[in-house]
Amino acid sequence: xxxxxxxxxxxxxxxxxxxxxxxxxxxxxxxxxxxxxxxxxxxxxxxxxxxxxxxxxxxxxxxxxxxxxxxxxxxxxxxxxxxxxxxxxxxxxxxxxxxxxxxxxxxxxxxxxxxxxxxxxxxxxxxxxxxxxxxxxxxxxxxxxxxxxxxxxxxxxxxxxxxxxxxxxxxxxxxxxxxxxxxxxxxxxxxxxxxxxxxxxxxxxxxxxxxxxxxxxxxxxxxxxxxxxxxxxxxxxxxxxxxxxxxxxxxxxxxxxxxxxxxxxxxxxxxxxxxxxxxxxxxxxxxxxxxxxxxxxxxxxxxxxxxxxxxxxxxxxxxxxxxxxxxxxxxxxxxxxxxxxx
Length: 342
What we know:
The protein has helices at residues 9-16, 20-27, 35-57, 72-85, 106-119, 132-143, 168-182, 200-216, 232-245, 259-268, 283-290, 302-316; strands spanning 61-69, 93-101, 123-127, 148-151, 162-164, 188-194, 220-226, 249-254, 275-279, 296-299, 332-334. The chain is of the alpha/beta class. The protein has a six-stranded mixed β-sheet with strand order 7-6-8-9-10-11, with helices on both faces.
């Protein structure tokens, strides 16, 4: 049975510039219509949907909360992406309240989420650890009609409405492929730095990386350090300890950041790092790429991510009727030879 159109035959006819009889045949999937006319009818329906969205959004104001536990490097990338995308979301208007810290204790995160629930919000964009008590706080927001979108790292068992970010498993596998391709075929230890095991996205990258090494490069042995929270001092101490313990440590897959500190730890120990794979094209990593101190950065378009986050929130608030792409962000491998300008 043909699906009932969202618009009347007359509306579609006016938009397409075709007769009512032609519209009727296309909508009800009857024969006797040329390919060009059929395409024009479907394009007219698409145009009507888009215009309807603009009409719904006109004058709408949304208050959005963004809660992130992340190093300032990454938070600044998110802010830049946010500022770049907001003008393109007009005629809807957004007011953003950002709650960010390099480390947020779980109790503090829960308190922030509870306060958001009390005062109300049109939506929440969330980058925090995947902990049981945080899941419960997200579920409580859902009961208060506050839609939650997770960014970069997911809370999959919660009642969040969507996850936006890269395929973290593919990222880990890609990093393993690069490390395995660039290192000699000799037994070697590879350092994996993780900011915190609480972040499901980082855990996915780590697991995928280790599994890929086991299958395709079993001569490489992963050495994992975590809980540096992407901060220089904590991360440097963890890396220094690992370097002393593993004399064959010659490569790094940096999931957790603080890459200047990681490299400084190698220099301090008078040890060479032959391959270094990082995440996110922040200011630090751009400099390190240009200096040829890291070999590749696994990057994704945060502007596109932020736009999708806002579209999900708008849809949850009834201001958007079209479908949103459910896929994950495309993964890009950036080397010193193809650093983008923006």
